[in-house]
Amino acid sequence: MLFVAEPMLGAEEKSAISEVIDGGWITMGPRVRAFEQAFAALHGVPDCVAVNSCTAALHLALKALEIGPGDEVLLPSLTFVATANSVLYVGAKPVFVDIESVERPLMSLSDAESKCTSRTRAVMLMHYAGYLSDRNAWANFAARKGLLLIEDTAHAIGVDEVGKYGDAAAFSFYGNKNMTTAEGGAVFAKDPVVLARVRQMRGHGMTSDTIQRLGNRSSHYDVTMLGFNYRMDDLRAAIGLAQLKYLRDWNHRRKALTRLYREGLAATCAAVCVPFATDDMSANHIMPVVLPLDVDRDEIAGLLRDAGIQTTVHYPPVHQLSYYRTRQRGRRLQKTESFARREITLPLHARMKDSQVEYVVASLARALNEAGQCPKSRRSPAALIESGASSMLASP
Ligand SMILES: Cc1ncc(COP(=O)(O)O)c(C=O)c1O
Q1: What DSSP designation does 132 have?
Q2: Which terminus of the chain is less hemmed in, N or C, by CB atoms within 10 Å?
Q3: Low-confidence winner among 18-27, 184-193, 347-356 (lowest mean pLDDT)
Q4: What phi and psi values does residue 174 have, to the nearest 5 degrees?
Q5: Which candidate in 63, 145, 177, 376 is catalytic?
């Protein structure tokens, strides 16, 4: 099976974990701090706080920025549910905003503007599929409306511009991300005071952690705020340090594979819409495509699965999930809903070979043909073989 995402783990990660085990200090030790410094440096920010998930990072960012009950937060519905859940965790209200268009499925600034009220405190951006939102436009919007600006950067690790849009950013190192620590996350914050608050809240609100007390020869600590156990451990941090060395190369590979997908899809079945443009700045996290209007997506997914290709959907809109739907009745986000009904995510990860992209493209073309959707003018996989593109049908 060719998977939608695959972690890039190997000998370096294994030996990094062994070293931690042999060293005997397995959590919140020197590797965690080293990882924080290396991750911050890679993105050109002074510091960051490593945590055990992006969900925790989002929660802490909102908490540290003192967003809470009575506040409204603007965010896309086309995101993973964690983005919206974090708003509920702090007692604020998520206000879902539509996307710009099917071709550019990022949160729409004009829809955000129309949903701003006197209670709006913050706007949360999500760089869908790794494609960056317009930094100046959103920074100006937040400044004009007096809003905090928070990035959910789960899809855009390793791009220079991310994490610097506004007040805070939350990263994910979950297993399907561009780099992974299996589970994990990190928080950036513009204000060092906010970042210090995040650091303290990560460990139960304690004024010092074990390694600091060891260094200070003190067994005393206080708790001066309500905190959580959102700590990262040294095993994960060691994996993260090994991964960071290759993140840029992997992101380049993802970009090249995305370009290949775009070319293949344009040549083979132009009825499929490929969102965004080749030159858009992106970490190329996933490969979403939008199927023609009258295609049965489940049928296409089934045919691709028969060909050994996993696909997924990014995302069922959050406002349509039962938990949210029953709480926010009557909300419609037409562009988001139309995109999400037709979107299918194709495999994309740095381990993939060019021939595997070609195989996916050819298999999609064949599936669309079988489903009776590919207009005659477009070439079938058989025609591709005749035209010399035989590697397109190589098995993954
Ligand atoms: C956009 C987005 N936000 C938040 C998350 C949550 O990340 P984590 O699993 O690290 O908590 C994810 C994870 O897949 C995500 O894709």
Answers
A1: P
A2: N
A3: 18-27
A4: -60, 160
A5: 177
What residue ranges line ligand 1, CB within 6 angstroms? 53-55, 79-80, 82-83, 126, 152, 154-155, 172, 174, 185
Are 72 and 64 within 8 A, CB to CB? Answer: no
Better pLDDT: 83 or 391:
83
Domains and CATH numbers, the chain: 11-244 (3.40.640.10), 248-393 (3.90.1150.10)
Residue 373 has pLDDT above 90, yes or no: no
Is 391 or 336 the better-scoring residue by pLDDT? 336
Residues 6+ apart with CB under 8 A from 140: none
Amino acid letter, residue 385:
I
3-state helix, strand, coil in the chain (%, to 5): 45, 15, 40
Q: Strands 287-290, 168-172: parallel, antiparallel or unpaired by DSSP?
A: unpaired
Question: Residue 269 Cα, ligand 1 centroid: separation in angstroms?
Answer: 31
- Helix (H) / strand (E) element for 347: namely none
C-alpha to C-alpha distance for 292 and 373, rounded to whole angstroms: 8
Q: Are the CB atoms for 108 and 137 separated by under 8 Å?
A: no
Residue located via tokens 């790794």: 130
Which amino acid would we find at residue 392?
M
Rounded to 10°, the helix 54-64/192-202 angle is 130
Residue 383's pLDDT is: 39
Closest atom of ligand 1 to 58 CA is: 4
**Average confidence (pLDDT) over 238-253:** 98
pTM: 0.93
Q: How far apart are CA 204 and CA 229, in angstroms?
A: 6
Average pLDDT of span 340-345: 98
- Our answer to whether residue 177 is catalytic in this structure is yes
Terminal CA-CA length for the chain: 8
Residue 213: predicted pLDDT: 84
Q: How many CB atoms lie within 10 A of CB 254?
A: 23
SS3 167: coil
The packing angle between helices 247-268 and 354-370, to 10°, is 30
Shortest CA distance to 16 belongs to which of 171, 240, 244? 240
CB neighbourhood size of 362 (10 A): 26
